[in-house]
Amino acid sequence: MTAQAAGFEELRDLYQEVILDHGRKPRNHFRMEVFDASARGDNPMCGDRVELFLALEDGHISKASFLGRGCAISQASASLLTELVPGLTTGEARAMAARLREMAKTGVRDGSTPALERLSALSGVHEFPSRVKCATLAWHALDAALDGSKEASSE
């Protein structure tokens, strides 16, 4: 095995570990008592469900949490979302959601910021088109919550 191939395997293992860790022990997995925006996302093809809760202050997301069930990818993605969007403006959060969707569809990782580097763990789903919807569901719910909608779809 070449050094480049070995490095790729190590990176893939690291990304898989991030997904498994967040899937097994999701962060911020609770319903906030007080929130300003929320939306529910369902993926009827595989049964993934995410309900996202956001606290907003002065155009920024101050807190995020979720409830959900489904595969490790959907739950890990929601968990990462709730860790990464607090402190961002709503515009920055939308931009992050767009970048995540692009990574999930194309597999092209974006390490331009530490947050996007963490989300690169989900870029491998591009190899499995049915899993792209799992990885992007929570991010569609984020956009829906910020738009004032109550429902999001992974379509």
TrEMBL record:
<dbReference type="InterPro" id="IPR002871">
    <property type="entry name" value="NIF_FeS_clus_asmbl_NifU_N"/>
</dbReference>
<feature type="domain" description="NIF system FeS cluster assembly NifU N-terminal">
    <location>
        <begin position="15"/>
        <end position="134"/>
    </location>
</feature>
<dbReference type="GO" id="GO:0005506">
    <property type="term" value="F:iron ion binding"/>
</dbReference>
<dbReference type="GO" id="GO:0016226">
    <property type="term" value="P:iron-sulfur cluster assembly"/>
</dbReference>
<dbReference type="GO" id="GO:0051536">
    <property type="term" value="F:iron-sulfur cluster binding"/>
</dbReference>
<protein>
    <submittedName>
        <fullName>Nitrogen fixation NifU-like protein</fullName>
    </submittedName>
</protein>
<comment type="similarity">
    <text>Belongs to the NifU family.</text>
</comment>
<dbReference type="Pfam" id="PF01592">
    <property type="entry name" value="NifU_N"/>
</dbReference>
